[in-house]
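Task card 7
Instruction: Convert sequence to structure tokens.
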Amino acid sequence: MAEVIEFFLKMDPGYEAQSTQPPFILHFGLPRAKLENTRKQAEAAIRGLRQQRPFANDSHAAQFTLASSVITGNLHHPDVKQILSLLLVHLVTDSPEKRETVARSKMAGYLIAPSPQALAHAPETTGGTYMAADNALNGLMKDGISPFRFRFAALTSEPQ
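Output:
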């Protein structure tokens, strides 16, 4: 079993064989021995997020913050990347079933794609401007709705 788990966030390519291949939005390795400590750090980060705005639960706070960072392109600052990495670890381990899968995985993360709400609010024409799409996405974000759906994915060390 690998001593390091690779965590990733990427746009859903629509093909399972490409799901855990670059390009990634966020990608990092975490030693297995540090997983539980990182989960505790994520809990502290999420408590801070939940003080800023009402979220349905901790995972909603994590997903919303990741989505917001993808939309704004605010992913490359080291401090932001550190917080987003913690949030991704939370999402990948937010249930006993996921933690069990991660325990036998080489890679685990999330694939994102436009949510049904984002698609429903997408402009009907592909005119020369992105302003209508930006306004729709910003409106969803303002209402606390993620413009992405998140799908858990893992590449396990053994057959499932």
